[in-house]
Amino acid sequence: MGIDKYRAKKNEWRVKEKTLFFLAAVGGSVGSILGMQCFHHKTKHYRFVYGMPVLLILQILLIICLLRVLK
Predict the structure, then answer these.
(1) Domain limits at 15?
(2) Which of 2, 4, 17, 29 might form a disulfide with 55, Cβ 3.0–4.6 angstroms?
């Protein structure tokens, strides 16, 4: 989020939204949410405002399910 925000300010090449979501989906949802808040980036995009917390909830549920299976 920080790199994309920096590049947005400089009018440079940007990180694709698909890439930001992919990184969040493979375990970076907490970092994405924190990055959105720290850098005030993508905070007006409803897809990010609601999508990142949904990914976090899904990741938590996945971890809970995996822990139950491994018991």
Answers:
(1) 2-70
(2) 29
